[in-house]
Amino acid sequence: MTTPSDRSPAPPSSPGRRPTRVDPRGPRFGAAVTSVLLLVTIALELQGAHTAALVLLAVLVVLFARGAFAGVGRHPWGLIFQRVVRPRLSPPDELEDAAAPTFAQGVGLLVTGVGLVLALVGVPHALAVSAAIAFLAAFLNAAFGLCLGCQLYVLLLRAGLVGGRSASGV
Question: Which residues make beta-bridge pairs with 21?
Answer without folding.
Answer: 97
